[in-house]
Design goal:
α2 packs parallel to α4 and α13 packs antiparallel against α14. The chain has 17 helices and nine strands. The protein is an alpha+beta fold. The two termini are about 25 Å apart. β3 and β4 form a beta hairpin.
């Protein structure tokens, strides 16, 4: 294991940065740095670890106490610090100015990441139930804006963010007009993380079956979208470097449309790093790409360390890279290929589920016991829904009949399959186990034991 760490300076830096941020928030985390230093052989790697550890301690902004003051009117200038997320009654986003960082709820109006806006609305404090969430986000309160005229854009943010929002809004209108209600809600959630219209019962079943990730734009979605884009670009008569630039632009646009959530940004960066390494004729490395993505995101938003999506996404991908299976050099026949692919998919589902189970138990008090089976049953349905929805949206501008046919073949039946599997398995009494609340310190020996299970594998013919 020491060699696995020693030859990846980006991984050393990412681990030390995480430990530094955690130490500033939770002092016992400093013990992890000692473990990292003990494993490292060279002075250079130890210097990297110490530097990033110090950087993490220095950058930690602290957790301000949310305000519990009564409602009051506000008329101030703010900067939007997150991509707006669509909810049932409008949009929510995070904004900041000299007085602090707040969540804004817009009943009407449009804003984008990076916009400077003048806000006239009602600010209210945080209830006792809301306090843990707002505190972890560094938010001090919530501002509600009911009328579009009460939001004035002083200066627009980067164009790519606004284009991403325009894409999402255009797709949502298309989905609502072209698909049945339940199907359009699922397509919106799968493609762009718009899940406000999904029934609570269905959400509960997603949680119980360990498939909640499918309605939250994540690494899986970006990976599938990236594969589809690369496949289409391969047919265009253009040099490889131009395909690479186009892929970067498309992934940035999709990340913006999906809300720039940590898993989305991580996956987009890893996809770019992977294709970039091939373009530069270097061997791609999943752990190094993952580490660079973590460093960039945590330097941008240190409080993301406390984000559940960030924790689950990075732990799952780390486990998949750490415990990956090696391909056999020879596979005979279609049956052999099918068995190998199913075996790899089952193994990946098992690894990701096992790696994230302690975090899921800690945050939600629930662990699915049928997650591997449920993910195997629905995995093949996600790609046709995503690609079919987006391709159908593209054809809707020129060939509506072709668009309708694509939706009928690739979207509606596969959404029905996912709903049937999730609701059927989620309704089983033994689908999930409830876990009593426990101290976060228990996560340390649990993950130490999981890492200790790793053994180097010799590639076999």
């Amino acid at each position: 294991m020491r060699d696995q760490i020693e030859h990846r300076p980006a991984f050393v830096g990412a681990m030390a940065l995480v430990v530094g941020l955690a130490t500033a928030h939770w002092l016992p985390a400093a013990a992890f740095l000692l473990a990292i230093l003990v494993l490292l052989k060279t002075l250079q790697r130890r210097a990297i670890a110490v530097t990033f550890f110090a950087l993490g301690v220095f950058l930690w902004p602290g957790l301000p106490s949310p305000s519990s003051e009564a409602k009051r009117e506000v008329d101030e200038i703010f900067t939007v610090t997150s991509m707006p997320r669509a909810i049932k009654d409008g949009l929510i986003a995070e904004i900041i100015n000299d007085t602090g960082q707040y969540r804004i709820v817009l009943k009407q109006g449009k804003i984008s990441l990076g916009d400077n806006i003048r806000v006239k609305g009602v600010m209210k404090g945080v209830s006792e139930v809301q306090e843990p969430y707002f505190r972890a986000k560094g938010l001090q309160g919530s501002i509600t804006v009911n009328e579009a005229k009460d939001i004035q854009i002083v200066h627009e943010g980067p164009l790519i963010f606004r284009l991403g929002l325009a894409w999402r809004e255009s797709f949502l209108r298309f989905s609502e007009q072209s698909l049945p209600a339940g199907v359009s809600d699922m397509a919106d959630a799968l493609c762009f993380n718009v899940d406000g219209e999904l029934p609570e019962e269905f959400r509960d079943n997603l949680q119980r079956t360990g498939t909640i990730h499918i309605i939250s734009a994540s690494g899986l979605h970006v990976f599938l979208f990236s594969l589809a884009v690369q496949f289409l670009l391969a047919f265009l008569p253009m040099p490889r470097w131009m395909q690479f630039i186009l892929l970067i632009l498309v992934l940035l646009l999709y990340s913006a449309a999906a809300g720039f959530r940590p898993p989305v940004v991580r996956a987009a960066f890893m996809g770019i790093a992977y294709m970039g390494s091939e373009f530069c004729k270097r061997v791609p490395d999943a752990l190094s790409s993952l580490s660079l993505a973590a460093i960039i995101y945590l330097l941008w938003k240190p409080l993301t360390l406390l984000d559940i999506g960030f924790q689950l996404s990075f732990v799952a991908v780390f486990a998949l890279a750490y415990f990956r299976l090696h391909e056999k050099s020879t596979i005979e026949g279609l049956t052999g290929i099918f068995k190998v692919r199913i075996g790899h998919l089952a193994w990946q589902s098992l690894v990701a589920t096992g790696a994230t189970a302690p975090l899921v138990a800690y945050h939600f008090g629930l662990v699915s016991v049928i997650a591997v089976l449920a993910n195997l049953l629905i995995a093949a349905a996600i790609l046709p829904i995503m690609v079919g929805s987006v391709v159908g949206w593209l054809f809707s501008f020129l060939l509506p009949a072709v668009s309708a046919g694509i939706l009928a073949i690739f979207v509606t039946p596969f959404v029905g399959w996912i709903s049937w599997v999730v609701n059927g398995l989620g309704s089983l009494s033994f689908a999930a186990m409830e876990i009593p609340a426990f101290n976060a310190l228990w996560l340390v020996p649990i993950y130490a034991a999981l890492i200790a299970l790793w053994r180097p594998r010799v590639r076999q013919a």
